[in-house]
Specification:
Number of strands: 2
Structural class: mainly alpha
Largest sheet: 2 strands, antiparallel
Distance between the termini: 18 Å
Number of helices: 11
Mean pLDDT: 83
Strand content: under 5%
Number of domains: 1
Radius of gyration: 20 Å
Strand order of the largest sheet: 1-2
């Protein structure tokens, strides 16, 4: 990994770490952590993140998803963008206290890969079309918010069940509000996930990138399984009117599939995944010209 190119992301992740610490502090000891800094730190982190994403896009002259590092940078940006939208529309208390630690862990994890650049082979570069990538990543981001809200729901339910009348109980939204927001983010993320998969399937069949047995590719299979799980969740919510902790637990289970589909399938040797690339491919990915 080229230090000069990717080192700014360390600063961004540190800002998200500080945002998470401050948000957790606001939740547990609101008198000791000012609201002003609770607003400033995430704003600065997201602003730097946006500039860095534009920088990566200018290097590859495309959407920056040509390797695992760029994809995680883009995904975490989408997650925080959806978070900002939810905060603006609904003003959810303490959402950042649960979200920013997750963003921080993803950031440090991808930085820990060091020089082990995992990228897409150059012959797959055309697969990452805007019509496929943006809806899919924004869908993943919305489902990440559904996961975080589910954690908040189960935490608040536990506080009420055991009668822990402390700052955590007071700092979290009501169960009704969290249940409603789980539904809203799921309803927003699922159509985007569907749109991204449809465009992806169309492009694979049109260009024959993955060969005649494209439907056997591990990432395609896991993407389909993930879609079916969330489709079943929507059915349970609408048709059976399932609410509460059971839906929250199913949302958490669904999110583990999202993570495995996005990050885990490259361990299976998928052509439609991330793998160690040759020096020539690395130069193509980085936009280096002789």
């Amino acid at each position: 990994m080229e230090i000069s190119a990717y080192s700014p992301f360390w600063l961004i992740v540190v800002f998200y770490l500080l945002s998470g610490i401050w948000e957790v502090g606001r939740l547990l000891r609101p008198e000791g952590f000012s609201k002003q800094w609770a607003d400033r730190l995430p704003f600065m982190a997201f602003a730097l993140h946006s500039l860095f994403l534009l920088y990566l896009a200018s290097r590859v002259e495309n959407i920056p998803v040509t390797n695992l590092f760029e994809s995680v940078v883009f995904l975490t940006w989408c997650v925080v963008a959806v978070f900002n939208g939810v905060e603006y529309l609904y003003g959810v208390p303490s959402l950042g206290a649960f979200l920013f630690p997750l963003v921080t862990v993803l950031g440090f994890w991808v930085l820990s890969l060091g020089d082990n650049l995992l990228g897409t082979p150059s012959n797959l570069s055309k697969f990452w079309l805007i019509a496929h990538t943006i809806p899919l990543f924004m869908g993943y981001a919305a489902l990440t918010l559904t996961f975080v809200l589910s954690l908040m729901y189960l935490t608040q339910q536990r506080q009420l069940k055991h009668k822990f009348f402390g700052p955590l109980l007071l700092g979290l939204p009501s169960l009704e509000s969290l249940d409603r927001l789980m539904w809203k983010t799921l309803s927003f993320g699922f159509p985007l996930l569907t749109l991204g998969l449809v465009f992806g399937i169309f492009w694979v069949k049109y260009s024959n990138i993955l060969g005649p047995q494209w439907y056997m590719d591990p990432k395609v299979v896991m993407g389909t399984v993930t879609w079916l799980v969330y489709a079943a969740l929507l059915h349970l919510r609408i048709g059976v009117t399932m609410h509460g902790s059971r839906v929250a637990m199913l949302n958490i289970a669904g999110f583990t599939l999202v993570l495995f589909t996005f990050l885990g399938t490259f361990f299976l040797g998928a052509q439609h995944g991330y793998k160690k690339v040759s020096k020539e491919d690395t130069m193509i990915i980085k936009g280096i010209k002789e």
